[in-house]
Amino acid sequence: MGSKPKKTKKLNFMPSANRRINIWYVALILILAVIIGRLFYLQIIRHDYYRKAAQADQLKEYSIAADRGLVKAHEGSQIVPLVLNQKLYTLYADPGYIKDIPATAATASAITAGDPADYEAAMRRLDTRYVVLAKRLSELQKNQIVEQKLPGIGIQAQTYRTYPQNNLAAQLLGFVNDEGKGSYGLEQFYNKELTGTPGLLKAVTDVRGVPLAASKDNIQVDPKAGSDVILTVDLGMQKQLENILKKGLETARSNSGSALIMEVNSGAIKAMANWPSYNPAEYYNVSNSDVFNNAAVSSPLEVGSSMKILTASAALDLGVIKPDTTFYDPGRWDLDGHTITNIEEVGGAATRSIAEVLNQSVNTGATWILMQMGGGDINKQAREHWYDYMTNHFQLGKATGIEQGYEANGYIPDPLSGDALKLTYANTAFGQAMAATPLQMAAALSSIVNGGIYYQPHLVEQVGSQVKQPNVVRTGVVSDAVSSQMRSLMEYVVANHHFARRFGDKYSVGGKTGTAQIANPAGGYYEDKFNGTYIGFVGGDRVQYVIVVRVNDPRIGGYAGAGAAQPIFGDLAHMLIDNFGVVPKK
Amino acid sequence: MNIRSRRRPQLAFNQPGTSALDSQYLRRHKADHSLLILTALLMVIGLVVVYSISPGLAASQGISQNHFIVKQLIDVSLGVIAFIVATQLPIEKVFKLAKPLAAIAIIGSLVVMFTPINEAYPAHRWIRFGGFSFQVVELIKFALIIWLAGWLAKRYRAGKVNDFKATLRPLLLIVLAAGFVIAKLQSDFGSAAVVVMIIGLMAYAVGVPLRRIAIVAAVVIALAGLAIASTPYRRDRITTFLNPEANCQLSGYHACQALTAIGSGGVFGQGLGFGTASFGYVPEPSNDSIFAVIAEKFGFIGTTIILVIYGLYISRLKKIIARSTNWAYRLIVVGVLAWFSTQMIINIGAMVGLLPLKGITLPLISQGGTSLVFLTAALGLVFQISRYTSYNVKEPEPTGGSFETKNNNLGGRRLGRAYHTAVTARPRT
């Protein structure tokens, strides 16, 4: 039974009602079809356009800072770090995300020891989404802030320089500013090498600019750390030089000065300092930006009578005088309507030797030496010879290329054009009317006493893996014979000047004072303001070091060169002999 | 002559929408289980997408990482509960609930006027208590459909569908009242459009002459035009809609970002864990804009699949409507289809730039608790109604019916033994 269902009558209820439903249904399906068509247009035909629009909006490029190279220097036989890196933290707020401003400000400022009122004011700013609340927070402070989980408060790590030797050699080093850029000194000169190659992060970000990890468009290039730099400087010597300079300036009642020690046979700077200096770790507390300058390199001066060493060297090398030449010095020269005379102690007209011209610092004698280069007159030939020696032999009037920011060129007057050329050139023979930096004088003197080789002055012996060899800029600055004659002449000067402690027979020490009138910016020179300089060398059978000292406007009696700069030179020379193994004569 | 149908328990004739025809053919059978599958599919898509964007979204708002997925899980659970409850409620009792529900909706509409306004959404739409918020308009839709279905079915049986006094005037009043309350008082233009569409399509389905519907539609459109012209932000939305890319930074921001996200998806999409729209670019990525987020992640293929699922859903509902001989049941399904399809079209249409932006959720996918719970409750009723469709011989009736219990005894009579036998096992004599 029931194997075959019985056929039932076909039901056909509500045909008209269902027709309405069918029409509605078809309309709905059509709408869906239209939407799918629209999606086809947006997602397939216009895909590239919208993809680009999205990337333009969302893909951002970030630079990943590379670790900055370290700076190291010698300390005896060791190489020790002078500048290191340290990670500190910047605290910032995104005002839009802070829920409870007074509470957040109170919590954050309690940790950072900041002023809650300042924080509140910053958090209430509506015009920005990034306000820095505090900089240079320690790791501990950072962790305390993070623990608080304050909405709208963020932490960013930033690398800062740290100085294990504190202020030592500050002006050589320079500093790194908040943007990570080296300023002044070595940091500026080698900014590129120290910075390294920053990495690149091209990342899709969220609407606040925070990079998202999950994106196929992200590109990351790892940063390449900066090169470490090793200085030629000896930190022990540097420390002592800084102390001696500071003490010497105090004694001379001078506000500022410089001193440097250069290795004669390589041009390497072993120590260089200026006073006043600053703390590079807190460079932002410095009110007068002049102290950032390494004045020994960036501040040229009229060197005064120290220049006579160069004048005599040039004349000897030209063969127009001999070391034992004597001549009649009239005690005054009238040139271009002006008179060149000497200081009182020298006296008037006399027959003088070259040694006495240097020892007593006779301006008219130096003028006479210059005249010999032109056959007895400061004519064109004399000026061109002297100009050639100053600029091409001694490399004055142009930067030496030492690894420092803001190196100055100095100034040498043109030999062929200008007013009162004879007077001007006569002045250059004893170090006025021209300007040179202490560094330029050290390099020039080195080339005179080392046998005539001009080495480029340098502070750096290694950058990354690249070892820098001493760079010979010129040979035959003066002949070997002249070099030896000049050493004797300079030793004679030292022997005939007063030093608190003599240097003994085992060591060869030579030098020359300089006292230069300070130019008045209003024109002419101050009657009562002088800079004192001293250039000299220390060695045994071979000269090892050249020392240059500069004392600005000392306020003690006597001549600036002899009274203020010479004692500093003496102390530095003794320091080298006592502590830094100057090889005595055999 | 079908003997079996005579033995069937008779439905009570005093219930709305029942007729002699119903008693002859209505028999409880297996429900339309494809509704369950499609509902689950849409809910799972919503859960997966919200799960994948939840951490980033939470991070950009500075809240707990799992905030959004936990909320969505709670909402979906409540939705499932609402669905199950609605399938188990005796449907004739539901009609009796229509008036109390409508009363609650009206009270809710009054209460919402006095609730504090949220700065982010300056409109009286939500009643908040504790961590939950309740959107009154969803209850209005639910109550309206049930009440209107019963009421229109009665009018239909009385042959008064085309009677101005008995049917059309009340209908017009309801449209205007709902429009005023929702669009004007609650500032919810999108929901007002949905409600008006529900009423209009139910009237259309019950057979109100097209000419009358057209007149009402003209009045409604005129009033809507007036409302748009009188509110600056709505005027803005219209101009933005007409040219969104002219002002991508300000008023066109949402529209531009939605288009950018959809367009960036391409054919295959960027993948579930990828895509950037939800990281603060598209506003309301878990809610109103979830379609744009899906489009970016799953591409044209994904969006087409979603639309096909919606199309299948619509066709199932349409089939249930076409086979429902009980007018009250039939009109409930009509109302639910109107609700479901209108929201879907308004939401997706806005995302793809075919319609102006409205704060309307994407049915069953979007986050939005109230909307989900009431929609699933309504779909639960539809599921129950799908047991009482009529079929002719060419299309065999779905088999099954294992859920029959005393509670489902529609006629309230004592059931004979044969009724408890499985449908398939019964002899077809």
Q: How would you explain this protein's 3D organization?
A:
The complex is a heterodimer of chains A (about 575) and B (about 425). In chain A, the strands form seven sheets. In chain A, strands 2, 3, 4, 5, 10, 18 and 19 form a seven-stranded mixed sheet that branches. Chain A is of the alpha+beta class. The longest helix of chain A has about 30 residues, at about 15-45. Chain A is elongated and about 140 Å long. Chain A has 18 helices and 23 strands. Chain A has a domain at about 235-280 and about 295-580: Beta-lactamase (3-Layer(aba) Sandwich), CATH 3.40.710.10. Mean pLDDT of chain A is about 90; it is low at about 5-15. Chain B is mostly helical. Chain B has one domain. Chain B has 16 helices and two strands. A two-stranded antiparallel ribbon of chain B has the order 1-2. In chain B, β1 (about 125-130) and β2 (about 130-135) form a beta hairpin. Residues about 1-25 and about 400-429 of chain B have low confidence and may be disordered. At the A-B interface, α1 and α2 of A face α3, α8, α11, α12 and α13 of B.
Q: In the CATH hierarchy, what is the superfamily of the domain at 233-280 and 294-579 in chain A?
A: DD-peptidase/beta-lactamase superfamily
Mean pLDDT, all residues of chain A: 90
Strand arrangement within the widest β-sheet of chain B reads 1-2
Given this structure, which CATH class of the domain at 233-280 and 294-579 in chain A is correct? Alpha Beta
* Major sheet details of chain A: 7 strands, mixed
Write down the CATH topology of the domain at 233-280 and 294-579 in chain A. Answer: Beta-lactamase
Number of DSSP helical runs of chain B: 16
Biggest sheet character of chain B? 2 strands, antiparallel
Report Rg of chain A: 37 Å
Q: Shape of chain A, please? A: elongated
Structural class of chain B: mainly alpha
Q: First CA to last CA of chain B: what distance?
A: 11 Å
Please give the alpha-carbon distance between the first and last residues of chain A: 140 Å
